[in-house]
Amino acid sequence: MSDDHLRIVEDDDVDAEAPRLRLEPFAASAQRYLDAELGRRQTRPVPPLRLPASGRRVAWAVAGVALAAAAALVLWIVGPTVAGEGTRVDPDQASRVVAEDSGDDGVAVPREPAPERVHPRPEPVDEATVESLEALDAEAQKLWHAGDLSGAAERLRRITELGGDHRYVELAYADLVTLARQRGQNDEIQTLWREYLERFPRGRFSRDARASLRGK
Amino acid sequence: MTLGEHRQWNVRSGIDDSPEEREQPDSGASHEASEAEAQLVALAREGNRDAWARLYQQHFDQILRHLTYLVGDPQLAEDLTQEAFVRGYKAAATFRGEARFTTWMSRIATNVARRHLRRASVRQRTWLGFASLVRTNPERVDIEQTYEDEVRTKVLYRALDTLPVQLREAFVLRDLMGMPPAEAADNLGITKGNLAVRAHRARTQLSAELARRGWGGDRE
Question: What is the ipTM of this complex?
């Protein structure tokens, strides 16, 4: 069946034209907007590719990550009495073992420094942690829908502390802001957005965060 | 084959980087470029990480574009591009070379996007920050084209989030990316007939959703 035949089938269907016409301005806008965003993106270097480590190192790396993640969880549970006042558990430490473990393969292209960053870029997390994040996220959503806002907020907080630079962390911050808004906690919203911008100064919600902090 | 210092892999790094200086194969060298790529692919299939990193550099933009259109979020698409190339690396041994490398990677990218979009909770929160924007009076359209494009894009993708993933894919590949039917069908792993049906259904549902939200028709 040729493409022309398909086009004729669609064109003969008068009902098909109305939706297509209504969507044309949106499609054209989306093409212009996304292509402009992609064009801006192309002025920056391609980020380095984070490949998993290979060979026997995997077992040691996984063991190291599991140990570090367990230690982070213990510190999180025990809290500041062990880690010291105001100290946040550094979930990045766990993932750094895997991210840097490229050995002789030499594939780990050095990260391009981002001069405008004040805080170091969060590190990626391993697959086991990602699964934990997914579970916490699902739990948070379930509690939220059931009306347990505190329970949902607690799960989302854990995601921000364990999730490194994973996109679930960004979404967790956005959800925490929504929860705070629901509970009328305006000061909390400001605190959350500041915290978010420290970790993700160019994150997908950075414009919302800055707008909120400016009071728009 | 010598791949050189890793510094050469970052062909787009440094302050002198610009789209014009970026390596682009011209028509006269396209055959040589294809052969060079075939050699890289052959090495990558044997597990050569350096070769894979080079392929990643060369095809990053194209896969990023593909994913950006599918998910509607350039920053998210960048994360998914990484994920796609990691998956591609793990599956490189299965690439038989019957299709172009870009075609094969695009299919992987589509699968990565599909996996992400099927997590309903994520889709519902894709435009969290812009929910208030679409609830405001849609007639308040700024004069500037760029702002208007941004608003319409977000409204469109919000509506796309309400579609089943397979309909969304058909619409994005055909109507937004302008992919020819054969290529789009191949990318999605379906027949051209099936693609036409899905695209038609997507347009109908999208149009209705936009009308329900107060967009479309005479407002445009």
Answer: 0.77
